[in-house]
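Entry:
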Amino acid sequence: MSWRLPERLGHVSTIGIWSPSGAFANDPDKLALYERGVAFLRGLGLSVVEASHCRGAWHHASATPAERAADLRELLDHPDIDLILPSIGGHVASQLLPLFDPRQVADSGKVLLGFSDNALLPLVVADQTGTITIHHAADVTFGFGRFAEGHYPLSSTSFADAISGRFDLTGTAGWRTLQPGAASGRLLGGNLKGLASLAGTRWWPNWQGSILFWESTDPLHAVCQHLMQLANAGVFDSIAGMIIGRVSTLSDSFYPPEQVLPIEKLLLDVLDLRFPIVVEADLGHNVDNVAVPVGALAILDAGDTVSCELRLP
């Protein structure tokens, strides 16, 4: 497959906002945070266009699946929009998979960004079309809304760099080697629960030779379940390396913490993984994040120190 950057990356002046996962406008606190996020974007000199159902509410989503899919097409057809952002996370982005065409995103030349639940959409676009997309904790509500309050300066700086076409995974230098070694491959990943949900579907990525990155906000026992789903689906037989987000922030309310199988023990002792693994990367909920170019070629070197060099088309 020929990999390429979207044409409008580096030329972003207008942002399109949609709500593929959840709703924010029916919650006063979330709405206020969203408005701060929009103001922050405009303060960067960016114009903002909202999709028709961006501020909607339909059960625990913003709109029906068909309406949300139409919102994406609306933003793709808008001549001025360069980058498409989610308003907020949620739990229903997978409803859109049968209703959108990844090729339309690729052909538009626009940049698609996702995080949390909706990260599976840019992943599918990158995997199926070869167009690089962005994974970043930069939704408008809990991303830019909190950037405006001075939280997560790395995330804010990383976004500004990314829309200029610059990506740096150096982060806060807190990345730690779990399994040493070096590997190269395309960066594919997102939210762990979302990745596991794709197994057995026609949207299951081609993991062969890739470097898997993931983050999660689930209880620790659920993280172990999702990892076993990936293992049983053959992912760990295919990938060249793995980058894991800030799992040290996760907890468990079902089991006492000392009873939950540690993730590191699952990976090394139970699954006996032998490829390079890095943990505590700047990826995750409620932590500073680097912007990851999904589909970019990465060279991961995990030793006494960790380095991750990117090669863009």
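The chain has a mean pLDDT of 97.
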